[in-house]
Amino acid sequence: MNPGGHAPGLSRAARIGWTRTAVVVGLVLLLELLCRTHVIKPLTMIPPSVMAVELGRLIAAGEITDDILQTASEVGTAFAVSVLAGFALGALVQALPRVRRAIDPLLASWYAVPFFVFYPLLVALFGMNVLPLIAIGVVFATPAMMLSTIAGLDRVPRVLRKLARVHRMSPLQEVALITLPSAAPHLFTGLKLSFAYAFIGVIAGEFILSGGGLGYGIAYAYESFENRKMYALMLLVLLVAIGVNGALHVWEARLARRRGHA
Amino acid sequence: MKKLTDSLVILAVVLAIWQGLYAYAGDVAITSPLRTFAFAGELLTHAPFWGHAAATLLAFAYALAISAAAGIALGLLLGLRRFAGDVAEPMLASLYTIPKVTLYPVMLLVFGLGMSAKVAFGVIHGMIPVILFTLAAVKNIPPVLLRTARALHLRPVQTAVTVLAPAVMPEIVTGLRVGFALTLLGVLIGEMFASQRGLGFLIINGINSHDVRMTTAVAVIVVVFAVFANGAMLALDRRVHHAGNRAAGN
C-alpha cells in the first residue's frame, strides 16, 4: 500500500501518523513560542509547558482528585446508562416499524434542541447533586446510541438471518452469533458518539451549574482569576477527550481489520 | 394523513410529559404548558423581546455564514488533498468531542464581551461538522466521474460546476443542517456567558433571578425555532439526497 511511491520504507498509514504527530507538536511549539515572546499576552494565555507543569503539580498534590473522581463517575454512569438504554430502545424501536415511523422526526431533530436550557429544570427536579448532571449526559447521549443501533440492525444482511433459520438457531444464538457481530461497526460508532455526548453534557452541566467536578473547577478558577489552574484543568479535559477518542479509534480500526481478514 | 396523526400523537406525548413534570416539580422548576404558551405569546408581542431576538439572530447569521463558508472551503481543500485530509480528519473528530463550553474563558479573554465572542462561540461549535461532512463528500466522489470530466476535456471551472458541485451537494446540505443546529447552540451558550443581550442572556438572567416563567418561555421559543428550522432543512436534505440517488440510478 504505497501508491505515491514516496519514502519506500514507510507505509502510507505510518507517514500519515508521523505527519499528524509533527503537526500537533509544531502547533504546540508555536503556541509556546508565541506565549514566551509575549505576542500572546500572559494574561490571555500561559505557555503550554506551564500548563502541563501546573497540571502535574495539581495532580501530585491531590488538589483535584475529588473533582476528577466526581466527573469520571458522572461521565461513566451517564455513558453506561445511555449505551444500555440506547441499545435496548433502539432494538425495540427497530422491531416496531409503526412506532419507528412515528418517532423518526423526534430523533431527527433531537440534536437541534439546545438541551442546556433545561439544566435549571433538572436541578429543580433532582436537587443540587450529581443526578441532574448524569441526567443531562443520558439525555444527550442516548439518542446517538439508539440511532446507531437502529442503523446497525437495519443493515444485518437478510441472507444471514436466513442462515440462522437454516441452522435452526435459538433466538439467543441468532443474536449472539449473527445479529450482534454483523451490526458491530454501527454499534461501535454509537459507543464513540455516546461517550462524546456524555462527556460534553456532563462537563457543560458542571460548568453552568454545579458545585464540583472538572467543569466547575474551570469556571471557578476563571472567576477567581487563577489562570494557571484554569488552563491546567482545560488541558486535562482536552487530553481526556483526545485520549479516549484516540483509544476508541485504534480499537475500532483493529476490529475492522479483524473483520476484513475473517 | 398518517404522518400528521403521528406528529400530533408525539406532540401530545411531549405535552403530557411536560404537564406531568409540572405536576411533580411545581412552579419553582417549570411553568405549565398552557401558562408558558400564554407568556410566550405575550413576550412575542413585546418590543424588548424582539431586540434580544434580533441580537441573537444577527450573531447567528454571522456565525453561520462563517461556519458555512470556512467549513466548506476547508472541507473541499482537505478532501481534494487526500494526504492532508487523512492527517487532519481524526484531529478534527477529536476537536469535535471536546466540551467547548470550557473554552469560554479563552474566548472571552481573546474577544472580550459582546458580538465577536458570541460569533466565535457559534463558529467553533458549528464549523467542524461542516468540514467533516464536506471532506467525506469529496473523498467519496466516484473516481469515474472525475475521469469522465477529464475525458470530456472540461475546464476546471466546468468540472467544478457540472461534476463536483452536484456530487458533493447532498452531503454538504447534511453538514450544513448539523452545523446550523450546533452554531445556534454555540451562539446561545456564548450569550449566556459573554453578553448582555440576546435570548441566551434572557435564559441565564431568568436562571439567576429565579424567573422560571421567563426561562421556560424563552427555552420553548428557542426549541420551537430550532425544531422547525431543522425540519425545513431535513426536508431539503431528503430532497437533494433523493435527487442524487435518482440521478445515480439513471
Question: What is the strand and helix layout of this fold?
Answer:
The complex is a heterodimer of chains A (262) and B (250).
Chain A: H1 12-36, H2 48-61, H3 65-95, H4 97-109, H5 119-126, H6 130-154, H7 158-166, H8 171-209, H9 214-223, H10 227-261
Chain B: H1 2-25, H2 33-44, H3 47-80, H4 82-97, H5 104-111, H6 115-139, H7 143-151, H8 156-194, H9 199-208, H10 212-249
Q: Can you tell me about this structure?
A:
The complex is a heterodimer of chains A (262) and B (250). With 262 residues, chain A is mainly alpha-helical. Chain A has a domain at 67-215: Orthogonal Bundle (MetI-like fold). Chain A contains ten helices and no strands. Chain A has helices spanning 12-36, 48-61, 65-95, 97-109, 119-126, 130-154, 158-166, 171-209, 214-223, 227-261. Chain B has two domains: 1-30; 33-249, Orthogonal Bundle (MetI-like fold), CATH 1.10.3720.10. Chain B contains ten helices and no strands. Chain B is mainly α. Classes of the chains: A mainly alpha (262), B mainly alpha (250). The interface between A and B is large, with 51 and 54 residues.
